[in-house]
# Entry
Amino acid sequence: MLRSVEQRRVPGSQVDPRVRELSSAVSRLRRQLAAHPAEFRDRSIAEEELAALAALAAAGDPDVPRLRRSLLLVAGAIGSVSALNQGVRELREAVDLFGRSPRG
# Structure
């Protein structure tokens, strides 16, 4: 469920809906990664970056360049694990809610 980048906090709500979506996507991918039985070389990198993304979401107003950096590290670390592709896609969609990165 992609929401508009223009969507901000709902009056009376304490949490930006984009932050809530990011937090949910991070939590889902962390659970999927924890349940994945295979070990792979960059698993610890993915776990560390997902923890960093969870902390950014918990802070409430994440730094977009930092979000994008963590997304790239997570995708690079677990991108070849096909069982986790859906979770990585959902994470990318959640990060994109904060605005797409400028193309150079």
